[in-house]
Design a protein that fits this description.
Elements lengths: L1 E2 L8 E6 L3 H9 L7 E5 L3 H5 L7 E4 L1 H9 L12 E3 L1 E6 L5 E5 L9 E5 H12 L5 E5 L3 E6 L4 E5 L4 E9 L6 H5 L4 E17 L6 E6 L3 E7 L4 E9 L3 H5 L3 H11 L7 E3 L4 E10 L3 E2 L2 E3 L5 E2 L7 H21 L7 H30 L3 H16 L1 H12 L4
Parallel strand pairs: 1-9, 2-3, 2-12, 3-9, 6-14, 12-20
Antiparallel strand pairs: 4-8, 5-8, 6-7, 10-11, 11-12, 13-16, 13-17, 13-18, 14-15, 15-16, 18-21, 19-20
The chain binds flavin-adenine dinucleotide.
The site of flavin-adenine dinucleotide has 33 residues, from helix 1, strand 3, strand 4, strand 13 and helix 8.
């Protein structure tokens, strides 16, 4: 890696907007393509190299682990800091009925892995930092993007304009470049806020994840390493402050009770972090000499834990298509290559995005019909083995 210096008059084949985990993974995945890549990030290098803890503990699928291994990211994570989900239990309201998913059903050791967003971001940067094919421009935001048949251009906050062959936007679910490229986006503001923090438990969690759809809020308790769990509460935004300002002891007692005291005495051991819940899906993941990856393509509600898993897959798929075009001596930025990526990522992400939004709506409404419907969903899923086996397969099957 080196830093971008305009005076060098360096030209780049690909400009990536955003050094979040998706942008960094994509830049890394282009290694060996012979393309020179510039990643532009509005934050300073220090913020990307040593990211602050942000409360997010990310559930990763087996496919994501495989991609992270292939990109040299997985091995840079301290393996002692990786948690395992071996079983998941989903419940609704006060009903005793729970839907169980077990890793044994899939013949694997675990359903998925738990890694903090801080460690993921650190690993993504550490893996790509030494690479010669990538340069970084920190502390500059992309102000505008324009593309034509002949080239793409980005203008930075210091008013420099760079020409390139292809712009790949990984600039978050509220992507400015997506808007500038005239790509419309489906947005669902759930009017809810997600509050995340970690807790220490008295009794072992046995690697079981609990997801409880209560009438006014959803509580997830996810197993981390040792006796640590990540707690994710989603609640109507006007009630979020009641939780954020609640005394730690009262909050701990509520969470302990939500899992029927199976984890013994629980103690809040981190700050509380809150995120407004807005899901987004771009109508197109590609345009002329332009592609969207990560949350910029599809920003998920976190309840089904798919956001980064999809984002990583998008980075991998797009890079794979570009490398294939290079091998075939085809222009890597041509519409055909980008449209193929658009179609394959749509096929993967649309069912997950739409399905998640239906689940969220169904499980957060308090009307009688909704309560009855979710009870029925849990009952059918519990007793019709192929349904729970299908969901387990989605988590554990390698899909790259
Ligand atoms: C509470 C919570 C829990 C979650 N849990 C899970 C989970 O269990 N499993 C899962 O898979 N996912 C989960 N996610 C989703 C996951 O965190 C995101 O999908 C992922 O972090 C998105 O990465 P990204 O690189 O696409 O975008 P971001 O991380 O948003 O990165 C975008 C980058 O672009 C930069 N940028 C933006 N605009 C510009 C500009 N104009 N110029 C230059 N730079 C710019 C930003 O500074 C930033 O660095 C969760 C999310 C939340 C909020």
């Amino acid at each position: 890696m080196s830093f971008f210096v305009m005076e060098k008059d360096m030209t780049y084949d690909v400009v990536v907007i955003g050094a979040g985990p998706a942008g960094l993974s994509f830049a890394k995945a282009l290694k060996g393509s012979g393309l020179k890549v510039l990643v532009i990030e509005q934050n300073q290098e220090q913020d990307i190299q040593s990211p602050a803890y942000d409360g997010r503990e990310i559930a990763l699928t087996h496919s994501s682990r495989t991609i992270m291994q292939a990109l040299g990211q997985w091995d840079t994570i301290d393996q002692q800091n990786i948690g395992f989900i071996k079983e998941a239990k989903v419940s609704s309201g006060n009903a005793p009925l729970t839907l169980d998913f077990n890793s044994q059903d899939s013949g694997l050791d675990c359903l998925g892995f738990m890694v903090s967003n801080q460690n993921i971001r650190h690993a993504c940067f550490a893996a790509v930092e030494p690479d010669e094919h990538v340069d970084f421009c920190f502390g500059q935001s992309v102000q505008s993007v324009k593309t034509s048949d002949n080239m793409a251009q980005v203008t930075l906050s210091d008013e420099q304009t760079l020409s390139t062959q292809l712009v790949v936007a990984a600039d978050s679910r509220f992507s400015q470049s997506r808007r500038q490229m005239g790509i419309s986006t489906d947005m669902v503001d759930f009017g809810r806020t997600c509050i995340v923090f970690t807790m220490t438990t008295e009794k072992p969690h046995n690697h079981v994840a609990h997801e409880m759809f209560r009438y006014d809020k959803t509580i997830a308790v996810l197993p981390l390493v040792d006796n640590q769990v990540s707690v994710v509460i989603t609640i109507a935004s006007d009630k979020a402050d009641d939780i954020i300002q609640a005394p730690a002891l009262a909050l701990a007692a509520e969470i302990s009770q939500s899992v029927d005291h199976q984890l013994g005495v629980m103690t809040v051991n981190s700050e509380l972090y809150s995120y407004p819940l807005v899901a987004t899906m771009a109508s197109q993941y590609s345009a002329k000499r332009f592609a969207l990856i990560g949350d910029a393509a599809v920003g998920m509600h976190p309840v089904t834990a798919h956001g980064f898993n999809l984002g990583l897959s998008s980075a991998w798929q797009l890079a794979k298509g570009i490398k294939k075009a290079r091998q075939d001596n085809q222009p890597f930025y041509q519409d055909r290559v980008l449209r193929r990526y658009h179609h394959s990522h749509k096929r993967q992400s649309v069912p997950i995005y739409k399905g998640t939004n239906v689940v969220v709506k169904l499980f957060t409404k308090n009307q009688l019909w909704a309560k009855a419907a979710r009870h029925a969903v849990l009952k059918v899923s519990k007793h019709v083995k192929p349904i729970s086996q299908f969901i387990t397969k989605q988590l554990t099957q390698e899909q790259i």
